[in-house]
Amino acid sequence: MKTFYTALMLAAVSLGAMGTAMADDITADVLTYDGKTKVVSAKGNVVIHANEGATITGTNGEYHFEDRSAFLEGGVKYVKEQSTLTAEKMYLYKDRTARGIGSVDFVDLSEHRILRGDDVMYNAATGFGKIEGNGYLETADGTLSAPHIEGNLKQIKVVATGGVDLTSTTNNAVGYGDQAVYTRSGRDGTDGKMVLSGNAWVNQNGNTFEGPELVLRDADKVVETTGRSTITITNTKSPSEEGGEGDSQPSVPAGPVNQATPIAGRPEYAGSPLEIKDNK
Fold first, then answer.
1. Which of 22, 156, 226, 237 is a Cys-bridge partner for 241, taking CB atoms 3.0 to 4.6 Å apart?
2. What pLDDT does 22 receive?
3. pTM to 2 decimals?
4. Which H or E run contains 18?
């Protein structure tokens, strides 16, 4: 095993710019350092300490001191505080966004979030996340499964497309549709709103709703329909009779986040093709 340590000058620059060094050391069986590009290439049992306390392990990889980005492949595991990411490949961008490729599982215990898919991008600082292929998102509010899921988990706005299955813990409902858009003015906002469109179907408390567009509001815990719709009532009990809470609070006006609001924290490269790394 060999270890490569950053030069003292580089560490000083990191400390001044970020408050703490973002790269402590890189360990691997074989290490190659390019002084011109400031890139370390590593092969075999790679361990990178980076990104303000993160530890990344894999089979092969590289670290760029110029912009503090990294790439690893081969059974990659990323651990930082209560966040863990496992994937076949992983990119760490200079803005501290982590991106996993291939059988990705990202768990953030501090925020009670799970992101899974073929291609998962997430930045815990900004709240931006994107999942492509076999997407799954789980939060305290419920779950979304769809081919494409993108949004900001702090703002909050999440868009799922390509055929969506959902569960809503807040509304005690399950449903599906072609697209789902969930918005809320913030983590503690009370104006949460789920718009399910395109062959939409929702079952709430045993009652079913079908239509071109269905709207679930967290504050009211009701389902609204637009267009020609069908409602099948099989449960006539109130939420309080079912053992839940009654609707004692007035409806809260919609907050500033809606379907037209841009997704906050979305980096420029979020829609760009994935960078191809040559095997070293």
1. 237
2. 43
3. 0.81
4. helix 8-18
